[in-house]
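Appendix B, Record 12. Input sequence as logged:
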Amino acid sequence: GVSSADAAIESNVLVLRNRSREMERDNPLTGRWLTLLENNVIGAHGVRLQMKVKDPDRVAPGGKIIPGQPDNFANMAIEQHWKEWGRKRWIPGQGKMAWCSFDGSLSWLKIQKLALRSAKRDGSCFIRLYVDPEHNPYGLSLRMQEADYLDVRYSANLKNGNKVRMGIEKNPNGRTVAWHLFKHHPGDRLNWSSYNTMSRERVPADQIIHLYDPKRIEQCEGVPANHAVLIRMKMLEGYDEAELVAARVAANKAGFFVRSIPDGLEPSLEQLEDGTGIMDSEPGEFQDLPMGVDFKPWDPTHPNSGYGDFSKSAKRDIAAGLNISYNSLGNDLEGVNFSSIRAGVLEDREQFMSEQNWLIEELISPVFEYWLQIALLAEAITLPNGSPLPATKYDKFNAPSHIARRWPWVDPQKDVKANLLQIENGLKSRRAIISETGGDISDVFSEMEADNQLAANHNLQLGNADKTATT
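Logged structural output:
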């Protein structure tokens, strides 16, 4: 229709969100899709931080520009403290220390996974930024809140000229200035009264990261990423249930008793309440029927021979709606060959990398920049000699590279040979190839240097892969 994005979302988002959560609970395909996102977009170790801080470039006599050298001490200090901040804190005798997570219950890795899953399943989620240097040595903590906290039923024209639409307050220029969130989860009736769960608070926009993926211009709130396939998933679920019931009925080989004698002379059969005769059956058991009773079998033809093809067809449509290959979603590698599986894997990885870039831009990068600013002001990032990095050099230190996970190929030997040919012919750099695998050339060279030094300490001589090392 011609309705705006927010008008369409406002009337449907709560229903879609509840249905999407129901699918996550009860439908294995939805659980598989969300797990694939977590494993491939974030991975086992999350998005890693690689700092690129360097000294300013210098102009030599004659006007030649000398590039600045990497500030290795600053790079290592920021990376080390970022990793320390991201741990789940628990100190015996002191309770939970709220460093990364506001209540100390989540690590930074778990926050990434929950944020991704929530944004895809519910359409959005909120990450609130709390500055509390008194109880947090790094000064910043994160509190996650589900999309339910946003009062999408609240719309108003405020006296200051701002407008609230679906709980989102904007100034006359259309910029978001605040969020109107419930103080408690509106669905929590165990710990809070109905009045408390429905009371709101106004949260300034600079204290909130609203993680969602808009699909239309001026869209202010997200919808579940699987909304296009919810109906088809439900239909497939119903068909699966019907086939299961029919198959169970077919396995029982039920039938009907047919009487061939007048009433009043019926043989002895166990009777139901309505007078219908019944007889129990057991697997492999044969029974004599009473005189005058014949048995007419009912043999339904299930499982249906077309069930598999229909199920695959439906799952292919669902996979297309979720932007993932059928083989990955359905765990079905039957009939695939190297070329076809490679094509599907490449398409999946392009989608996963797109999701990685979105998560880095919308969540990871803003959190890091805010953390760096607060941590520098708190003098929490220190060098090995104990001196803190100066907050006045924030622009210099704000040089992160967020490295997401990458994947090995099905046939790595061929890919390695292709990379070597590109390096030899000047078509690709070592830096580019290492970056494609999720690594950093500085780390690789440092590790190679450490390996050589360790080998020298043990009187070992390291050679190429095709040579035998000698002692």
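Residues 338-377 form the longest helix (40 residues).
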